[in-house]
Backbone:
DNA sequence: TATGAATGAGCGTTCATTCAT
DNA sequence: CATGAATGAACGCTCATTCAT
């Protein structure tokens, strides 16, 4: 007896609700601090039903790291490495990224945990690491293009790109509360300096 | 009959060994992932003996965060905010900090966890946060001095200082393995750009 | 999907079995001498399942004292304080109580422990104490009625009632084995003397 | 090297202090609730030193029950079973016993625990039981003598004696607080009725 | 598919006991 | 004899996972 369309949709929604709840709890309470019972209660489903959608706790954790990554990666990679004016493109990119990172506290806190304890979480880390490489390389190529056009100082592009991604995750980590939330705009210009723009 | 001098020394060594082991395990395996049993085995002492030196797991965790901080904070604050040449001082500071952060993977990974999950670990976070404020303000004053002497572009000093500390912790977080460890030197110049030096 | 009627019944039985087992073990082995493991084994259920029915060991202990009290208190209070012939009523009451106390070794041993260590067990003791007051006062009123009709010697009713309840719990405590179990009948007359009947 | 007289005396005092402390703690906190550490602290000696005087916790517990018994038993048995006037002797005995039991809350609370959980504490219970038999029999003979002289109603002496000792321990158990402490005097006459005096 | 009771391994912690000093 | 650090068994309790309904 195949499931009706409505059931299918319901299940999809339910799965997503579990996942959203799990991201939030894993981020704020950590892996062991988050119990299936807590997730079930917060997602307003029954305890045992969590296992209908995710094989076990580990798979749920992996999904919590990997699935939002797929959703956000397009936005992160949304800049043109072949732009006519690479410096203007870089500045726009910085603005976008800072805005994006400012708004994603929850998920990024989870990312920080996985990266910080990558030996414990090798599988989700691997996904993050691969994305990071891709991202860094794309930024590197944009930097290279700017240097070739004489608009940026000569520096090794990959380390600079690494510094940039490190800076972004670092700001997210450091701005633990809302005291400096209005500071995010002030971060743009100095961050941009990292790339060594020639005036 | 008080303890002999030798016993006293032995206990001090033992306590330190537990602490070092705990820092390492908490950093790589997280708070719940680290069990007292694992710590005892790695420190080569009996299970129950851990509790001779630390009241409970939480106190051991707090000590793991706070005690190394006291040891390292002097080195981190070792720069002169009233230097004649603030720009040269900043550059030297960047070099020192990068070297320091490159060498302290273990402890800093633990710091990342506490900061990333500060709601879970309010007490050790508070210590870190207070040190961070002190550090950031000292850097801010050095930046201000450079700006007053016309050697640095005009930017709000505190956000720049925040960016700088964020960058440092971010590099430490991102360089999870040794693949880029030879890159650390390449980080110096672009990081220094953050402060907006005028050539 | 709620539980079926059969399941519900099974759970009720299981809870009662745990409680009965707990009363027995707490009575014979004391609070700390009784472990959850022992209870689970004696009740033929798994260790963790005890916690499905009782939040923790303390709650199980409280339930072990309080729930049987509710069952037995009606029987204990089953005498008529307004009887036409208060002396005959007293004699009947004594017979009933002695019979009741003779048959309830297990639970009363537990009661003795709670009363004997009331500082350690304030919550269950409070329940017992309240019942004791009620019981003692009711006996006191029956004694008073007998005295007013000139059938009992003049004595303060409440101390006499206290002596009577003390005697009952004391017999239960002293008759630790079955050596004197056929003595219970012989206790009736002398116990009745306590009330000072006038012949 | 034999110990000096002073040392010997000191050790005797120390042993007694441990014992007194243990009686108090075992009585109020129970067997498992009492730790060697607590005893050592309360007795103001070092932890390990407790084991110099008592082989292990169990032996200390046994000594806590048995040694005070030896001290108190003479007082309890201090009545004349061959008295000229057995009824007057009984009345005096009742007065003494009630006074004695009123003043010995601590030790008697411990006795109640051992009797109530005699399966757990067979060795100290055996001592108490033997004393109890001796006591009860002596009272029985005094009762018998009173009956032979026609001063007491005919009743089986041993059950009456058992009732009497039960009553004493029962009062001690029931008077958990000081609310009725001034009642002790009021207990004498009705308790005495137990023996069936003929007026 | 949805539910939640049942299971037991594993945790942090306590504490009687041993033993080197 | 006095001390208290070292040991590890045993405790209460949690929770991921299973499974009957």
Residues:
């Amino acid at each position: 007896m195949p499931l009706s369309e409505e059931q299918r949709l319901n299940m999809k929604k339910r799965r997503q609700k579990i996942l959203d709840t799990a991201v939030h709890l894993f981020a704020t309470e950590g892996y062991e601090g988050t119990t299936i019972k807590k997730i079930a209660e917060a997602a307003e489903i029954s305890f045992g039903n969590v296992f209908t959608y995710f094989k076990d706790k580990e798979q749920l954790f992996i999904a919590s790291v990997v699935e939002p990554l797929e959703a956000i990666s397009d936005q992160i990679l949304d800049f043109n490495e072949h732009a006519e004016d690479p410096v203007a493109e870089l500045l726009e990119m910085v603005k976008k990224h800072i805005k994006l990172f400012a708004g994603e506290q929850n998920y990024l806190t989870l990312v920080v945990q996985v990266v910080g304890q990558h030996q414990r979480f090798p599988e989700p880390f691997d996904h993050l690491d691969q994305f990071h490489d891709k991202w860094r390389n794309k930024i590197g190529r944009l930097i290279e293009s700017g240097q070739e056009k004489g608009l940026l100082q000569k520096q090794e592009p990959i380390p600079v790109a690494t510094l940039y991604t490190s800076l972004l995750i670092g700001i997210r980590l450091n701005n633990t509360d809302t005291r400096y939330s209005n500071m995010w705009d002030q971060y743009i210009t100095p961050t941009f300096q990292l790339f060594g723009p020639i005036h």
